[in-house]
Structure formats: C-alpha cells, structure tokens
C-alpha cells in the first residue's frame, strides 16, 4: 500500500474511531451485554459437563471464548449504522465523490470497526477472568486466533455495511440482529460443544463461520492449540475477502444517485 | 485542463427521464466556456439540478452525451473527481465532527500533499471567515457557517471546474456578496464555475453566461446582457386587492383587451408588458377599474434579467427586494406607487 493510500485509510479509520469514542454509552453497552450473557450462561450452566476438554476445564472457561467471539459478531452487525447516518446527512455521497479509491474508504472504516471490536473482545476476556474464568493460552495460538477473529469481524462488518448501503434503513440493522446473529450464534459452538449438539445441528455448526472463529480462540486459550490454517484461518480469510468485495461494489453503487 | 476548444464541458442532445415518465431534461445542448462563471436559472423542476448532477457524474443520462474536462462524467473516474468539485444544495456535513477535522479529512481524501494541508485549511478558513469556528463541532454551527464549511470542502483541491447548486441559499446579504466575489476571483484564476441560482441581479453583475431553463430545455443561453437585450421587456406588475382565479371572466376580458401585452397572473399579481409608461399606465389602470378589479399597488420593472426571465418562463423569479416598497429607490412617476 502506497503512502497516499495509507494516509487515506488512517484518516477514515481515525474519523471512525473518533465517532465511536464520542458515544461512550454505546461502547459501555457493547461491553455490558456480553458480560450479562457470560454471567447468566456461565453460572446457569456451571454444572454442564464438558469433559471433552479435560477435567480441569469448567463451563465458564469454555464459555469465555464464545462470548468474546459473540462480542465481535454483535458489534460487527451494527457496523452499517454509521453508514446509514452518513447517508442521511449526505456525508457519504461527499466522501464517495472525492478522488480517493472507494475500497480504501471501506478499508479505513472496517479497520476502525474491527480493531475496536477486537479491543472490546479483549476487555470482555479480562472481565471474564475477573469473574473466575481461567485460561492457559499459547502466544502463537493466541495471535493466530485473534487473526481468525479479525477475519470473522471483517466479514460481518462488511456484510452489515452491504445491508446498510442496499436498504438505507436503520430498521434493517435490527432485522440483521434477529435474522443473522441469533441463528448464527445458536448454530455455533459458542455455548455448547459440537459433540453434545443434535446430529443435524452438529453438522450445520461445522460450516458456521462463528464456530471457526470460536474454535480457534477456544483451542488457543484453553489447550495451547494452534489454529488450523486450512480449517479456520483460510476459510475465514476467504469469507472476509468475498464480503469485502460485495461491500465495495455496494459502496460504488451508492456513489450514484 | 479545458478541451482544445476552450470549453470545460460540452453537452449534446442530453435527455434524462425518470421512472414514471417524468422528463427532467429534454434534449439539452450546451457549451461551457473555460475560465468563466456560468449561471443556470429557471423555475423549480426545470432540470437545472439534474443537468448539474449529470455534469458531476452523479447521475447517468438516459440518452445524449456529456463531455466534462475531456471525459465522460458517467465513468466517474478518480481523475475527474480530482479535477471537478460538486457542491450540492443540501449540506453534506457530519454534525459530530469539528470544522477542522472535516477539512483535514477531505484534504487527505483529495490527495493534498501532507505538508500543505495545514496551510490550505488555514487559507480557506480565513477566506471563508471560518477561522474562529474550526474547533467547534459542526452541530454548533449556524446555518450560514455550515454553508461556508460546505463550500470550503468543495474548494479544497482548487478544482478546475466547480459546480454549485444554489450556494447562496441560507446566506445573509453579506454572505451572498462574499460568495459572488469569491466565484469571480476563481474565474480570474483560470477556474470555471457553473452555479444554479435564482439570484438574477447577481447573475447580471457577476456571471459571464446565463442559461435560462424551463421544462428540461434551455430557452436562452448567452451573456446576461444579450439575454436582456433579446428577451427583456418593461413590465408593469400590479398587486390586485383580491386573489383572482385564472378562470375569472374579468381576467378573460382583460386578456382580450390587452392582447399580447397580457403576460401572466399569479394569485394577486398581474403582469402586463408596458412599452410606454407615460401613455399606457393610466389606460391600463382604467381598464382594470372598468373590469371591477381593484389595484392595490403597482410597480414598473425596467428591462433586466428578471423581466427577461419572466418573459421566457412566464413565472417571476425571486422578487428583487430593493425594487419593492422602498420609497426613493430609483422612483419616478408611476414606477412604484399607489394607483392615483
């Protein structure tokens, strides 16, 4: 990436970060929500048997990576809201009619959103540790699983942006949560190990991108595993590229009236 | 860079229709000179904004061709976006950002060299009188300040062609005067400006060319002086005491008596062509009285761009504020006054 391109990405990234920091209530809520899920699920199912991971792993430990990935998923689904605000103020049209490459504008926006979501996930991880969860991470595994989670975040931020650009309606974001997030969450291994799921759900969860992200993170945090390149990193990277391409096309289309 | 012929834009047989059969542009031909200020004027819905948006590459025409700065704007190339700036009528600002943050963001997006951004932002802020407001969030700006910031973003990269859609809307008289001066200075610095406006007095003073549009067509396109010479007529505008329906028989009678001199009636305003005020004024007022139409006040408009506009479009542009109800403002017998 050239110096000029980097300046464009960092300028858009900076603007997105500034706007996020100006909404502390939203930022706090995005931390409170996963904590509520963790406390309720963690203590409700504390006797849930997860012997698959070894006797020393409790349900709260098992749940924590799932909640971290869920934080990224829920936050990513709201990524498009900012674009809808920008469309409502005509600001997006103005951004798109500068000579800047529109893909760089998207890279800047997604970069800010995903880095914020990963920071939030890290905070959730720390909060989880303070309420009693235990982890035993491997550094390389953790780095690669954060990359996997980042790819997952890019994919779903881009999907949210695409829906926002196509529908131009804030209501569509609420629909997104119900139609995409919830099915994705409950057909993944975020809360339950795959071998304890009903047969069809277990098969379905194997192809769920959230399962891939959670699996990488859980393996690296709880059992020193290195995420598989072919089974999690590459599929998630490919998914993020595909959704980025679709969002770029939607952004170019939005430049026309 | 303008084309070899010294034109920044050439439009041929341009047509734009919207779903539902609305025809916004109906075969427009236009040549825009470089280093000049061109005004587009006409009643609402006459196609001015559609034409400007097509020139800016924001809208694709249904048929016809437009070449802007040597390229097809519909391709919306990055290079054209660098050389051309479109300032829309609606303010396109982020209310949460400060003026400085907004200007700096766009300076980067327009590819200004890093070292020159601070100086360019300061220069624009000084010339648009935004200097003391740069640290404030845009939501705290007054309407006039927002308009200036909106315009400043369009000027950041010093475009070769600046397209402005009603930039004076919401500006006070001082702001308007400032803006027109700025546009004139831009043209002097080898920049070309196309501006949509209803401010006909300013068009006459500051624009090199004016296009009067109606129903998606260009009715006249020349220098303001030529348009005035070819289309303006002295006009008597009479304020009637009652709101007269277009179907009123008294108006029909009057139309018959006055013939081609009867121009239009808009609610309480009756417009009549007046060739010789000395001989015709009293006669016309007497005709009104004979039709039991009471004239509350009247004014004579000397031939100018406003009367040319009226003659071309059949509707009046914005009322010139200095010519109405101001005793002594160029007043002579029968120019502004109560019917005797």
How does the helix and strand content of chain B classify structurally? alpha/beta
What's the architecture of the largest domain in chain B, going by CATH? 3-Layer(aba) Sandwich
| Chain pair forming the biggest interface | A-B, 25 and 32 residues
Give the domain tally of chain B. 2
Assembly type? heterodimer
CATH class of the largest domain in chain B, please?
Alpha Beta
Detail the poorly predicted runs of chain B. Answer: 319-340
Q: Beta-sheet strand percentage of chain A?
A: under 5%
Order of helices and strands of chain A: HHHHHHHHHHH
Count of extended strands of chain B: 14
Poorly predicted regions of chain A: none
CATH homologous superfamily grouping of the largest domain in chain B: P-loop containing nucleotide triphosphate hydrolases
How many strand elements of chain A? 0
Strand percent estimate of chain B: 25-35%
Report the principal-axis shape of chain B: elongated
The major sheet of chain B is characterized as: 6 strands, mixed
Descriptive keywords:
heterodimer; A: 257 residues; B: 340 residues; alpha/beta; Rossmann fold; Alpha-Beta Plaits; 2 domains; six-stranded mixed β-sheet
Describe the secondary-structure layout.
The complex is a heterodimer of chains A (257) and B (340).
Chain A: H1 3-21, H2 24-44, H3 59-77, H4 79-88, H5 91-96, H6 102-130, H7 139-167, H8 171-186, H9 199-206, H10 209-222, H11 229-254
Helix pairs in contact in A: 1-6, 2-3, 2-6, 3-6, 3-7, 3-8, 3-10, 4-7, 6-7, 7-10, 7-11, 10-11
Chain B: E1 7-18, E2 22-33, E3 37-41, H1 48-55, E4 63-68, H2 78-83, E5 84-87, H3 99-109, H4 114-127, H5 143-155, E6 161-165, H6 173-188, E7 192-196, H7 200-206, E8 209-214, E9 217-222, H8 224-231, E10 235-240, H9 249-258, E11 262-266, E12 269-273, H10 277-290, E13 295-301, H11 305-313, E14 336-337
Parallel strand pairs in B: 3-7, 3-8, 5-6, 6-7
Antiparallel strand pairs in B: 1-2, 1-4, 8-9, 10-12, 10-13, 11-12, 13-14
Helix pairs in contact in B: 3-4, 8-11
């Amino acid at each position: 990436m050239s110096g000029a391109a980097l300046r464009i990405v960092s300028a858009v990234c900076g603007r997105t970060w500034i706007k996020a920091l100006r909404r502390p209530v939203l930022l706090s809520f995005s931390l409170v929500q996963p904590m509520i899920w963790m406390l309720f699920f963690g203590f409700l199912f504390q006797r849930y048997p997860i012997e698959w991971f070894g006797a020393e792993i409790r349900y709260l430990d098992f749940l924590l990576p799932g909640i971290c990935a869920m934080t990224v998923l829920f936050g990513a689904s709201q990524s498009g809201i900012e674009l809808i605000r920008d469309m409502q103020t005509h600001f997006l049209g103005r951004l798109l009619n500068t000579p800047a490459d529109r893909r760089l504008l998207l890279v800047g926006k997604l970069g800010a959103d995903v880095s914020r979501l990963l920071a939030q996930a890290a905070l959730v991880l720390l909060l989880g540790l303070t309420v009693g969860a235990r982890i035993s991470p491997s550094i390389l595994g953790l780095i690669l699983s954060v990359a996997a989670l980042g790819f997952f975040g890019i994919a779903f931020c881009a999907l949210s942006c695409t829906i926002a650009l196509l529908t131009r309606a804030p209501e569509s974001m609420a629909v997104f949560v119900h139609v995409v997030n919830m099915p994705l969450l409950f057909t993944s291994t975020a809360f339950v190990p795959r071998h304890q799921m009903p047969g069809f759900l277990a098969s379905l969860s194997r192809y769920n991108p959230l399962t891939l992200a959670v699996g990488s993170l859980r393996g690296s945090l709880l059992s020193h595993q290195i995420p598989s390149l072919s089974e999690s990193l590459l599929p998630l990277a490919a998914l993020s590229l595909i959704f980025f391409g679709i969002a770029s096309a939607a952004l170019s289309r939005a430049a026309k009236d | 860079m303008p084309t070899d012929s010294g034109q920044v834009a050439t439009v041929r047989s341009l047509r734009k229709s919207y779903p539902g059969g609305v025809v916004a542009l109906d075969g427009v031909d236009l040549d825009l000179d470089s280093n000049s200020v061109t005004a587009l004027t006409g009643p609402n819905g006459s196609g001015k904004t559609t034409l400007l948006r097509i020139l800016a590459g924001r809208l694709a025409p249904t048929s016809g061709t437009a070449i802007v700065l040597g390229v097809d704007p519909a391709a919306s190339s990055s290079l054209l976006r660098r050389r051309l700036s479109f300032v829309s009528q609606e303010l396109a600002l982020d209310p949460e950002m400060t003026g400085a943050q907004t200007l700096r963001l766009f300076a980067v997006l327009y590819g200004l060299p890093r070292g020159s951004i601070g100086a360019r932002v300061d220069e624009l802020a000084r010339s648009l009188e935004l200097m003391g407001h740069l640290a404030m969030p845009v939501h705290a700006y007054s309407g006039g300040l927002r308009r200036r910031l909106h315009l400043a973003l369009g000027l950041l990269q010093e475009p070769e062609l600046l397209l402005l859609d009603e930039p004076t809307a919401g500006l006070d008289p001082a702001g308007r005067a400032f803006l027109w001066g700025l546009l004139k200075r831009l043209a002097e610095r080898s920049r070309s400006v196309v501006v949509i406006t209803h401010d006909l007095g300013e068009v006459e003073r500051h624009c090199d060319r004016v296009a009067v549009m109606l129903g998606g067509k260009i009715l006249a396109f020349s220098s303001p002086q030529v348009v005035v010479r070819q289309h303006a007529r002295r006009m008597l505008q009479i304020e009637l005491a009652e709101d007269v329906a277009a179907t009123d028989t008294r108006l029909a009678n009057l139309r018959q008596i006055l013939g081609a001199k009867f121009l239009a009636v808009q609610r309480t305003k009756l417009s009549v062509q007046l060739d010789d005020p000395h001989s015709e004024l009293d006669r016309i007022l007497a005709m009104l009285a004979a039709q039991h139409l009471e004239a509350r006040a009247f004014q004579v408009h000397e031939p100018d761009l406003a009367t040319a506009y009226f003659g071309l479009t059949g509707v009046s542009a914005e009322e010139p504020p200095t010519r109405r109800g101001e005793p002594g403002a160029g007043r002579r017998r029968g120019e502004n006054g109560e019917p005797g």
